[in-house]
Amino acid sequence: MAQAFFGGVHPNDMKAATNEKAIEQLQAPAQVVIPMSMHFGAPCTPTVSKGDYVKLGQKIGEFKGLGAPIHASVSGTVAAVEPRPYSMGGKVMSVVIDNDFKDDLSEEVHAPADPDALSVEEMVEMVKQAGIVGMGGATFPTHVKISGGIGKVDTVIINGAECEPYITGDHRAMLERPAEIIGGCCYLAKMFGVNKVVIGVEDNKKNGIDALNRVIAETKAPVIVVPLHCRYPQGGEKQLIHAVTGRQVPSGKLPIEVHTIVTNVATAAAIADAVIDGKPLISRITTVTGKVVNPSNLRVRIGTVVADMIGECGGYSEEAAKIVMGGGMTGVCTASADIPIAKANGGIVVYNEKDAKSVDEEPCIRCARCVQACPMGLDPYKLKHLCDAGNLEGAKANHVMDCILCGCCSYACPSRRWLTAAFKNTKDAIAAAARRK
How far apart are CA 203 and CA 225, in angstroms? Predict the structure, then answer.
């Protein structure tokens, strides 16, 4: 068992509705809306125009600088190239494709003759051309993470904690796609030149641990599975590193500073798909749960709108008051059900009026529960006063930029202070001020 990290909370995991539901393949919709911003970095530039015919897996968005290419998730005719609403708010340039339901595969998609004979450079290039990003939510381009870590990393960690409430897609992937996950781990071991890869899985997913260990034993893969204490946010990058290795990432630094790299189990499976079959990232597993008739784990094409997924789950079981993309702690409320699924969207949660209702915050009672809960060792009560006063410099001096916006402080607060929201707004304001300089 790995060691415990500091802080954290134990919210109801709300996973019972879907953790025993096998992954279902959702039929591609009549139309997909593919955002050109699905990665950390500047949005892609569309490489197709209205009226063009595109094939499944064809590159339709190219990046410059930090980013990853974007591919067509269906074959058909481009209906529009225009700004459309997306999950992070506002609008982003998107490619809208009318599906011809032929899944006419692009000539750009082809498997290598012998994946095991590929050089490190060739594998990194395949990951790059596949458009793979961190699928746990961070969306950092995977090829950049790999190429930047070669020669500097001695520990590769695969995040299978899935501590976020409601979401069960990674758990189901461990049960149903363990060979692909382990295969991706093996290629990561080769790319980084390490003798083993560690998969961290919370100990409430014993069947997932067993499924992975069976494949490891059968293939003699250089992979070990480490059971983790079940506590939120165990899947946080810095918390996972500390739990598995005992190392602490310094303030303001990245995992590479402690010779470690972390990626998600879904990302590992996508790497296997890219290296073995040449497949680009055009679909993902997403949990649809909450107030829907049939909560499900769905494999969906990128660009499928939320309304189509909810419809596949039988529609709403109660009147929807809020739709959240993500989980119960860190998810983002959508403006409508017409938002498309992107590469990092692992969950959709529908809330009724009772569950969605916000409560008024009350005065701080100085109980320090937020301090005990904060996994980053911050003083949330103090930060809240600084943030509410608009004191950006004071908030920075008290390490607001180290906040991972996990929501533990808000969850633990008996006065229901809007702590996490204040920190998010302040971090955004600090980032905006830095861009103006």
Answer: 11
